[in-house]
């Protein structure tokens, strides 16, 4: 498996992964799948802002993607980023996500970022444990801030301090 920067030709595969997650999980608090045009715009905006989008590829197929971007718009938060890691449904549990997130950390450090955070659905204990194995700490919980599949959802915040690693 190779981890590399995503290219525009990867966006369709990223879209397929994103939409499967939207349709079938609470990892993304969206109700409607994205269009290719929306994902292309997201990719262009993210990369134009200087933020990475990386993919895990094997045998020419995108297995997963990861990125980070601005957490909050105010200048005081400029050293904090929020990440996303999503893996194709048939590749979950095989270490793809760990390799992607591990590859993001030095990219954030190289950009001078201090903290990387993630918002995880509280019921996704596997994702919480995944983050903890990579050095993230659970730092908070917001109750009933999301709504999907006819129920209220809690978010658990995880974070890692980048410049002490």
Automatic annotation (TrEMBL):
* Domain N-acetyltransferase span(s) in chain numbering: 1-163
| SUPFAM superfamilies listed in its UniProt record | Acyl-CoA N-acyltransferases (Nat) (SSF55729)
User: Which Enzyme Commission numbers does its entry carry?
Assistant: 2.3.1.183
Known InterPro entries for this protein? Acyl_CoA_acyltransferase, GNAT_dom
Q: Does the keyword Ubl conjugation apply?
A: no
CDD domains on file: NAT_SF
Keywords attached to this entry:
Acyltransferase, Transferase
Q: Which Gene3D superfamilies match?
A: 3.40.630.30
Report which reactions are catalysed by this protein. L-methionine sulfoximine + acetyl-CoA = N-acetyl-L-methionine sulfoximine + CoA + H(+); L-methionine sulfone + acetyl-CoA = N-acetyl-L-methionine sulfone + CoA + H(+)
Q: Show the GO MF annotations.
A: phosphinothricin N-acetyltransferase activity
| Any Pfam family the entry gives | Acetyltransf_1
Q: What is this protein called?
A: Phosphinothricin acetyltransferase
Q: Which organism is it from?
A: Chitinivorax tropicus
């Amino acid at each position: 498996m190779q981890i590399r920067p995503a290219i525009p030709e990867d966006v369709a595969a990223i879209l397929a992964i994103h939409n499967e997650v939207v349709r079938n999980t609470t990892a993304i608090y969206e109700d409607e799948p994205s269009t290719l045009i929306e994902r292309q715009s997201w990719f262009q905006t993210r990369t134009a802002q200087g933020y990475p989008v990386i993919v895990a590829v094997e045998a020419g197929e995108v297995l997963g993607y990861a990125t980070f971007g601005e957490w909050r718009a105010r200048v005081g938060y400029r050293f904090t980023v929020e990440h996303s890691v999503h893996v194709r449904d048939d590749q979950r549990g095989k270490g793809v996500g760990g390799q992607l997130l591990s590859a993001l950390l030095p990219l954030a450090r190289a950009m001078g970022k201090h903290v990387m955070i993630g918002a995880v659905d509280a019921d996704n204990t596997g994702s919480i444990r995944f983050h903890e194995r990579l050095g993230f700490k659970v730092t908070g919980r917001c109750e009933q801030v999301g709504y999907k599949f006819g129920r209220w959802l809690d978010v658990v915040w995880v974070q890692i301090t980048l410049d002490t690693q």
